[in-house]
Specification:
By secondary structure, this protein is of the alpha+beta class. The termini are far apart. Strands 1-3-4-5-2 form a 5-stranded antiparallel beta sheet, covered by helices on one side. The protein is built from 4 helices and 5 strands.
Length: 149
């Protein structure tokens, strides 16, 4: 059995376990009502795609905390700093999606560990839906103000 590794200790090339999810019409509608976006493309779609998954769902479902292997040692916190997201193809409601995460870059800045992570969402047919470069840092309980920057 492999030991769980805290995210802040992961090195470039290491991956989190993939996460799969299904976007049902009900899930899509919950997001639409929550953000008050009733664009017909998300409800009815068009003849070729049917209803399209709202981008907010894709961003939410691809946060690194969704991975079944996401783990941080007690006293550590992950801080999301920035994203570069590219929506490659529309995502169709009713399909299953798979998210993968791979650490691209690890570095230190102002005494804190930082990571750049490549995130990819593909649908059940293997169609690339979203490419996301996620940047984040970590904070530990007990770091002095001077160490935090």
């Amino acid at each position: 059995m492999s030991e769980t590794k805290s995210l802040h200790l992961m090195e470039a090339g290491e991956e989190l376990a993939p996460f799969e999810f299904l976007v049902t019409p009900e899930l899509n509608q919950q997001y639409l009502y929550a953000i008050e976006d009733f664009n017909p493309i998300y409800i009815d779609g068009d003849e070729s795609t049917g209803p399209v998954v709202h981008p907010a769902i894709l961003l939410n479902m691809s946060n690194r905390t969704r991975s079944p292997s996401f783990y941080l040692e007690p006293g550590w916190a992950a801080i999301h700093a920035a994203d570069d997201a590219q929506f490659v193809n529309p995502a169709s409601v009713g399909k299953r999606f798979r998210v993968t995460w791979k650490v691209e870059l690890v570095y230190e800045r102002r005494g804190r560990p930082w990571q750049t992570m490549n995130v990819l969402i593909v649908d059940e047919d293997g169609t690339e839906i979203l490419r996301r470069k996620s940047h984040g840092t970590f904070a530990a309980q007990g770091l002095s103000k001077k160490q935090e920057g």
